[in-house]
């Protein structure tokens, strides 16, 4: 029984840019991802778009967002599907100088805003790296924290805390 427990599901969908797969297979994945995202409805709280900080958004990112929005507006049930807030995550931030990283944050935020048919979310661009001390809000006191850890904390904050009833606390 999972009622009253914390629940958060992260789903890592296949990349739509580079893949060791045929073009046909990659197209199948793209359709699968679109349906998965659009069929979640209000249960999908956030869409995380991972972008390599060295390169920024690529044509495949723009194509996928456009295709997702087009599919959402052509729902067969006659109701318009809406996309959840989209949050950009810049990866591999340790491989980019701070000046270039600051420019990239501004660039990808503008690119996302320009590519969306609706108002973009106000969620911050998160910076992550596999290396400690690089990334979003990475220093606590004098201790460096990895950006991935901050991302986990940010996502965990999306999960409502269970209400403690007298029957739960009596055990």
State the gist of this model.
This protein is an alpha/beta fold and 171 residues long.
Instruction: Give helix and strand order, one letter per element, not per position.
Output: HEHEHEEEHH
Can you count the beta strands?
5
Span between N and C termini? 16 Å
Share of helical residues: 25-40%
Structural class of the helices, strands and pairings? alpha/beta
Mean pLDDT reading: 75
Strand content: 5-15%
Largest sheet, described in full? Answer: 3 strands, parallel
Strand order of the largest sheet: 1-2-3
Q: What's the Cα radius of gyration?
A: 19 Å
Query: Low-confidence runs (pLDDT<50, min 5 residues)?
Result: none
Task: Give the overall silhouette.
Answer: globular
The DSSP helix count reads 5
């Amino acid at each position: 029984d999972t009622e009253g427990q914390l629940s958060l599901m992260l789903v890592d969908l296949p990349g739509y840019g580079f893949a060791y797969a045929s073009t046909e297979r990659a197209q199948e994945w793209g359709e699968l991802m679109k349906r998965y995202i659009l069929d979640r409805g209000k249960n999908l709280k956030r869409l995380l778009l991972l972008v390599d900080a060295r390169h920024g958004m690529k044509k495949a990112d723009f194509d996928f967002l456009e295709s997702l929005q087009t599919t959402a507006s052509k729902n067969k049930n006659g109701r318009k599907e809406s996309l959840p807030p989209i949050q950009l995550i810049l990866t591999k931030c340790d491989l980019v100088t701070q000046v270039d990283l600051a420019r990239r944050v501004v660039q990808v935020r503008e690119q996302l805003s320009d590519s969306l048919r609706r108002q973009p979310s106000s969620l911050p661009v998160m910076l992550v790296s596999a290396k400690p001390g690089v990334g979003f809000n990475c220093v606590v006191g004098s201790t460096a924290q990895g950006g991935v850890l901050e991302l986990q904390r940010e996502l965990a904050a999306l999960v409502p805390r269970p209400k403690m009833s007298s029957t739960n606390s009596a055990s």
